[in-house]
Each structure stands twice: as C-alpha cells, then as structure tokens.
Amino acid sequence: MEGRLIRRYKRFLADIQLPEGVVTAACPNTGSLMGCCEPGSRVWLSESDSASRKYRHTWEIVEVGKVMVGINTGLPNKLVSEAIVEGVIGELSGYDTVRREVRYGEEASRVDFVLGDRSALLRVVATPAGRLQWSHMLRSTFNVPGCNPLVDPLWSDARYRDAMRGLGMAPCAQARPWPLPLRPKA
Known about the structure:
Number of strands: 9
Radius of gyration: 19 Å
Order of helices and strands: EEEEEEHEEEHH
Shape: elongated
Distance between the termini: 43 Å
C-alpha cells in the first residue's frame, strides 16, 4: 500500500500517512537511511495480520527522486531466491541444489547462496542507487578499483568476474576461493 512518510524515529519506526489515516510501521533497516527519510516522500508498506507482530505494517520501499529504494534489507535475498528457484535468472538456472546463508572459513563468514555443489557462490548486494554507485563506492572506499576485502573471494568465480568487468571493475589480485565445505550427503 502506498503512503507518504511523515517521519522515521528510533531507527525501527516510521509514521506514514495513508488515505485512511496515520499508521506506525516497522522499519526493518536499522541503518541511517541517509537521503531516504525526507518527510513527504512516497513510500510503500506491506501489511501483516499476524497476532505476534507489534506493528501491522512494514516499510518496504521509498521513492527518492526517480529511484525506488528498498528499505527492507531481508527482501533482496528472498526475491533472488525465488528468482533462482523459478528459473527467472537464466545465468543462475540449471543448478540441482540451492543452499542459503552457508557459513564458511574459520571466521564463520557467510555467503548468501551456494548453487550446485560449490560450483557457484552468490552474494546479493543491494544498494540505494543501483550497482554503478556500489562500484564507485568500492573504488573510493578501498582506493583500489574493484578490490574489497568483503567480496574478494568472489573474484575466483568466472560469472562474478564477468559481471564486475561489465561494471568497469578490475579484478582484485588478492582474490582467493572460499574454503566452503561440501554439501552434506542426505
């Protein structure tokens, strides 16, 4: 449902003006949301009838200029998962298994998806203004084009390399494969 943002407060809450009145919605993004909380901004909410929820509405999307920005940080992985399972993303279809949030390494880091038997690793990165802003952020933050300690291991995957090169990102020299465990036999 569509409404207008009145204010966001306590990081977890937002007051939204709907046609039928003002509601308080849960804000699932605890980040600063700088540039996304202007009063009067057009927003979209989801609604739940669950008795266990304190707030019936959840703030999902805000319109910033001409860009739709996802507020719910859990939604991108859910959407990507559905798209993989339904075969919507051709490059990610044809794998016999899809595992979500697999832990790996001594640090117990996490990768969003493992496709097949470790044959493809997928990390979903959602950014407010799209993928090109993300690539520029990596360059300015780490001062090395395309090199980020958080995503370096992905450079060992051919599909990831192709996608990053398409964004004008140079490969990271420190990239190493992840030490992912094999999928347990059922």
